[in-house]
Amino acid sequence: MTIDRNSGEPLGSARPGEVSVTAAASDPAQSKGKPGRLSWRKSRRSQPGALTTDQMKRQGDITSFAVTHLGSAAEAIRFLNAFNPLLAGRPLDLAIASAGGLASVRAHITAIERDNVRG
């Protein structure tokens, strides 16, 4: 395990999807970069399989939409992560994949909400 020289904290403690930032060594002779610069660890975007900016926007959009229209975060998460035979896939995967998939999942959630209001 690598320890930050300045803070004594372990490096690499960021969870997936988070960016870990550590200050470069205060002694320029010890620093490989420029003094006073921040040392950035590789972000998730540089890793294989990472989401593009558009995919992240669609993921946030469908998550917010589902929470609002399905009544709770727990219900939204359950719906988005479960295989849906009417959509022929996991709603979250479909919504992230394309704008058309996002529209299909939104329409399905709207239909569920309508049926719940009637029923």
In short:
Helix content is 45%, strand content 5%. By secondary structure, it is mostly helical.
Describe the structure.
- The protein has helices at residues 53-70, 73-81, 91-97, 99-118, and strands at residues 21-23, 38-40.
- The protein has two domains: 1-50, no CATH class; 53-118, no CATH class.
- The chain is built from four helices and two strands; from the N terminus they run ββαααα.
- With 119 residues, the chain is mainly alpha-helical.
Top keywords for this entry?
119 residues; mainly alpha; 2 domains; two-stranded antiparallel sheet; 4 helices; 45% helix
Major sheet details: 2 strands, antiparallel
- Give the strand order of the largest sheet, numbering strands 1, 2, ... along the chain: 1-2
Secondary-structure element string:
EEHHHH
Question: What is the residue-averaged pLDDT?
Answer: 78
Overall number of domains: 2
Rg computed from alpha carbons, rounded to a whole number of angstroms: 21 Å
How is this fold's topology laid out?
Elements (H helix, E strand, L loop, with lengths): L20 E3 L14 E3 L12 H18 L2 H9 L9 H7 L1 H20 L1
Antiparallel strand pairs: 1-2
